[in-house]
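Sequence in, structure out. Go.
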Amino acid sequence: MYAWEIADQLLQLKQDVESCYFAAQTMKMKIQTSFYELPPETHNALRDSLLTHIQNLKDLSPIIVTQLALAIADLALQMASWKGCVHTLIEKYNNDISSMPFLIEILTVLPEEVHSRSLRIGANRRTEIIEDLAYYSSTVVTLLTSCVEKAGTEEKMLIKVFRCLGSWFNLGVLDSNFMAGNQLLMVLFQVLQRDETSTNLHEAASDCVCSALYAIENVDTNMGLALQLFQGVLTLETAYHMAVAREDLDKVLNYCRIFTELCETFLETTVRSPGQGMGDLRTLELLLICAGHPQYEVVEISFNFWYRLGEHLYKINDAALHTIFRPYIQRLLHCLARHCQLDPDHEGIPEDTDDFGEFRMRVSDLVKDVIFLVGSMECFSQLYSTLKEGNPSWEVTEAVLFIMAAIAKSVDPENNPTLAEVLQQVVLLPETVHIAVRFTSIELVGEMSEVVDRNPRFLDPVLNYLMKGLREQPLASAAAKSIHNICSVCRDHMAQHFQGLLDIARALDTFALSTEAAVGLLKGTALVLARLPLEKIAECLSDLCAVQVLALKKLLSEESTNGKSADPTVWLDRLAVIFRHTNPIVENGQTHPCQKVIQEIWPVLSDTLNTHQADNRIVERCCRCLRFAVRCVGKGSANLLQPLVTQMVSVYQVYPHSCFLYLGSILVDEYGMEEGCRQGLLDMLQALCMPTFQLLEMQNGLRNHPDTVDDLFRLATRFVQRSPVTLLSSSIIVHIIQCAVAAASLDHRDANCSVMKFMRDLIHTGVSNDHEEDFELRKQLIGQAMGQHGQQLITQLMTSCCFCLPPYTLPDVAEVLWEVMLFDRPTFCRWLENALKALPKETSGGAVTVTHKQLTDFHKQVTSAEECKQVCWAIREFTRLYR
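Output:
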């Protein structure tokens, strides 16, 4: 509370820039987050005081002016009694030239703050403000025009004016007919055409034009302004060439932004009437001119437009349109292939983590998205012929192979001689070519695994080629990834090579592989293993796991002798990937071939878990490994159930790692339907719940442990799905529901989703009559639970939607409300009415948040809904009143 007064005093003292900046920023934050602390009768005094401060401090520092301008804007938006604030500010300062800079600053930030996340002014107040700003917008533009006339070529003022104009364009409140004939537009384009314009002014003018183009997204309703902007931008081509000649990259990037925004705005028009009026294809020519610039950062600006154009044409699917746009895409692909070339003096393999590596990945994605316009096969053949017929340098070859790798999967592999020829030629590349060419060719082979699957005769030469790569340090990880791809696609053909894969897996650490590549190789091996005859699987799986198990045993024995703790996660992750992907087809009645192996490995995993029980990261990896082991053999892991649950529960009492709850949910999923296991699983749940509730009941417990909330409700949901009556008849259910109600306001994507899914599935068990004999009992038990917690749940859900939860969680909340309504509509109507009565009706600034009619309309929309998505739409609209 004291911050208001102290900040005000510091601003009056005007000691130095630092103290004033601190005070101005504090004032802004207080207005944004704690405005409710001030009684309404103090609002006018605060406004007058802020205006005095900005006037007195205007020459101290521009950053202080900006903070105070934000404070004034945020106050104006929340203070309902300050009517027509734009008008009063202009009236007050219009004639004083020295006040102009801060007046324009306030007018710049005001429209920007209307949609600020930190101000929850609500949809009603926001609508009122936007109408008010639209009403005064022409006054603002007139003020800006007179500023430009007075300023002449004074750069600082022009920058301020352009920023302010852009801000009003962004809010979408300027009258487009009024703007079409306004001289500010002329000034903007003059500044952009002039060669001597400075970098800062150029950027401000460019931003403003981009905002204007964005504001007329709906071209048909803004024809006059659209035409002015369209013609204005087309005049900038000469200026672009001038900037290129002067090697002024900042300006080049600005022009490219403007050209891209032009194309984005007129995209629909261009596709609807290509070459006519504002569908003029010169707009695409401008982008292709930019694509020809030697710096790749320039073409990258336009990627989103090309992606949208491709998406648009794909949806319309009109051959005649494809013919019109095909040449443009062909030229674009040509430019992209050139931009992907590495420097001729580049040494080593292509980097994929630096800026250029990321650019190439984005090129690869874009090419995949637009290739249908050119035809994958046609493009692939053309690229290949440039390699076959010419004698290109290594960097050209590498770039062509890179683009070929991007489109290889979209080429139809059925009896396709070109693909077969490419594969044949690539595996014959000599080891003397540049290592980057070999690297990319290895990636290409991995992308062509479908071709190998259709032409098994290539399998041996391809594997030999990849094995060579695997033995060389820079190529090893890429080769491993390609072998993994081939294992995934050619599982049946690879069975004959299983021994070779096993040899690689045994010697995994003799290759220079990244962790990810090593795990990928094991995944490929496991996928092939699952296709072997059942009688062979157990022995081979045992061999495959032996290396990792021996390593874990070695770590455990070293630990017991010298007390040093070594990290077992590498081996745990490798075992996990083997269990996860060894999924043979087992007929009913057959013993699962992996059961024996997992039984043998359990003691080592159990010891590892015990040794590292305090380390969350290692325990998490142990649980992950056990999760896949249990999933691998399903009911075949029954012998593990007792010792595993005992160990989980005992460690969890001391170290409540949330992954034990997750592992518990897997056990419930696998065994919850087994009559003989239900009581044991319920005992496990109760034993795990006690330390969990203690953890979550601490101060900020829910907020500090979202993973625990997520995993607890996954576990509870599995119980509801597998054995609802067991859970509903237990004493623990009351505590779990209370915890769910408390956690409903938690703003965490996964945790919130789990809580809502639990509530939805719980209530649904009393709604869905699946003709099971326990339906009536379930219905009765849910009725009791709702009788106890229903009103509290609905009130908490409504409050959370309005004040705590982001919009993406609302569909999940809607599903819970929908199930409660299906269960008992009359009672739900009453609960919802009480919940709505409890919501605040106006803001601390005196604005109406929600009218009586809006409340009754919402109640009616929800209670008369015939499907869940109607409830969701109603909540979406209603909660906007509080955002």
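Check: The CA atoms of residues 54 and 520 lie 62 Å apart. The mean pLDDT is 95.
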